[in-house]
Specification:
heterodimer; A: 172 residues; mainly alpha; 6 helices; globular; B: 125 residues; alpha+beta; five-stranded antiparallel sheet; three-stranded antiparallel sheet; 33% strand
Chain lengths: 172, 125
């Protein structure tokens, strides 16, 4: 894939990730969810970007998403999103590269859990209080559950995407 | 790219390990039949309230713009000035291990696992 095509693709994916985040936030706003529990739909896009384009591009999408969160929900939320996003994308890249026994479902579980962990560590560091660590069990549980869900979605969708990617690669 | 089955055994293995960890932490944090609600802002504990000793509902107004409703056995965010109001939507919490938080204002309410006999009825300051 030429770098021009990669740039175009990452732009589309970033927009997709933002849209997913926005829809997710709107839906979750109506529900009494524990703090930090989210489906993590953008992770589907970011994981795909990591597999198709590589770690730097996936990181870029995560950064754009954090910037969006910063602009729409404030500095605190933006920082938490950044912390979670960085840790999560790094884990995704490592998972895709080194844990070949895992499909996207397993990698997404790791990403989701580490995203929550990153946010937990960030808020603990920002407030200097260990009190938030009691949120860990709920965040672990939702990370595993939603990670499996989003990863399975990607597993299901990949055959169709694989038909498109070579198409893009050949530049027709 | 990877082969794409719907789910693999290794995926479930990872999930299982993490769920075990989650269960362990859960048991660790939820020991005791406590009814003490702890309200912290930033790092500091502002209030410790034994919810089983609450007879009439009252509200606490924090400096940061957050209002907390305390009622017999339950505690909840009544109002807040944060963008999403996720904290208010969380609703009331009452069981040990449960928590509600207003992250932009750095307020955390959690129900402690301590036995209520040992905990103070209310602590302010």
């Amino acid at each position: 894939m030429t770098s021009a095509k990669k740039a175009a693709l990452v732009g589309i994916l970033a927009a997709l990730a933002l849209t997913a985040a926005l829809i997710e936030r709107t839906v979750c706003a109506a529900l009494p969810l524990p703090p930090g529990v989210r489906p993590g739909l953008s992770n589907i896009v970011v994981t795909f970007a990591c597999a198709a384009l590589g770690f730097p591009y996936a990181l870029g999408i995560a950064a754009v998403k954090s910037g969006f969160t910063l602009l729409t929900a404030g500095v605190y939320a933006g920082l938490l999103s950044l912390a979670g996003g960085l840790l999560s994308v790094t884990a995704t890249a490592l998972g895709l590269r080194y844990f070949h026994k895992l499909s996207f479902a397993g990698v997404s579980v790791i990403s989701a859990v580490l995203h929550n962990l990153g946010q937990l560590l960030a808020i603990t560091a920002l407030t200097g209080s260990g009190a938030y660590l009691t949120l860990a069990p709920v965040l672990l549980l939702s990370g595993v559950g939603f990670g499996l869900l989003t990863g399975t979605v990607l597993n299901l969708v990949m055959p169709a995407l694989n038909k498109i990617i070579p198409f893009i690669r050949k530049g027709r | 790219m990877k082969a794409h089955k719907i789910i693999r055994r290794a995926d479930l293995a990872v999930a299982a390990v993490l769920l075990l960890l989650c269960a362990a932490l859960f048991i660790l944090f939820r020991s005791g039949g406590g009814t003490t609600a702890v309200v912290t802002v930033g790092g500091e504990t502002l209030y410790e309230i034994d919810l089983s000793e609450v007879s009439e509902p009252y509200t606490l107004s924090l400096d940061c713009g957050v209002t907390i409703a305390v009622s017999p056995g339950k505690i909840a965010f009544a109002d807040a000035d944060c963008p999403g109001r996720d904290c208010v939507r969380r609703g009331a919490i009452s069981k040990p291990g449960q928590s509600a938080a207003c992250l932009p204002n750095r307020v955390l309410i959690r129900i402690d696992g301590r036995a209520s006999k040992d905990a103070p009825d209310a602590v302010a300051g």
